[in-house]
Amino acid sequence: MTSEELKKFAKEVVGVDAIGIAPIERFETAPEYMHPRQIFPGVKSVIVFTRRILRGCYRGIERGTHWPSYQVFAYAGLTKLVHQANYRIGRFIEDHGFEAVPAPPAATLKEAGPRGPVPEGGKYPRNINISARIAAVMAGLGEMGWSKVLLTDDFGPRQRLGIILTDAELEPDPVRIGHICDGCKLCVRDCPGNAIDKEKSIEIKAGGKTWRCNDLNIGRCKLTHFGLNRRTSPHFVKTFPGIVLPMMEQGNTWVEGWNFGHALFDALPTYKAFSAYPIAICGARGCIISCMNHLEKRKRIKNLFKRNFTDEKPWMLEEKPQKFHEDHHGFVYDPEDKEGFGGNVQSDWY
Fold first, then answer.
1. Which of 153, 172, 279, 348 could pair with 274 as two cysteines, CB 3.0-4.6 Å apart?
2. Separation between Cα atoms, residue 219 and residue 299, nearest integer Å
């Protein structure tokens, strides 16, 4: 089995959009709890592939009128297609006598760390998760933008990723970074959760390459992603009109955001319908939509369209409630309205 044969099968038979290969040596600097060898000691190659997100799936969120298209086709549904592709490519590899280890990326798994102290006695650390975006860069598929989202030459930020570890020693692809993101930082301006820092950055060294991206606040990101940000979630405002969670004031971790969201989903009909899968109410408005729109206008990616996605700034709702305790005294109805409830709302107990 050659790299060429594998890629031809993945693209022409399975239908992935791109596929790249990284030799395990490029992960030399990965921490123990993110190293592919901790999952599969015999790994020789890390295979990463993409499936594009349809541009039109963002249209309803961009207008503030329709969420299911993104949720069903671009997020949960597309993730299922990635898993199916992972299985079919894995079968192809194992039919040639090599092992294929599907490795769901860390970005899609519930936070479990820090993973605790490294066990004594030569035992492996717990809960190994591979960074899908770093793996994709190592496999030559693209680069990380300032937002930390993977950018590819074809689709910019519009793709989901799949990873397979194998003991087949395959011809690798070259790493190419620094040619897509132009540092516009519109992702910072348009992230409704204020999760993308404009100045603070982290440095990543891998595969002999070094790059910088923002120091992402994943706690605010998760709250906004789960639709608990009033500025971009009419669903939350409709159910909880008097509650405000200013994103700039939140100090939660990613897992706290995850657990808080799931605790509220039963009270929000839209979220309850989506909650069997990872939900994405924010629609990635800064990190994907604004980035995509910018890269297309400047022709920095290949998949271009006859019309700009939008020439407008993203819509936002008010962050604070329109009515406060002084207006409604904690009741659904107005206690000053003597005509309501038969004119008997003013009573001794009140």
1. 279
2. 33
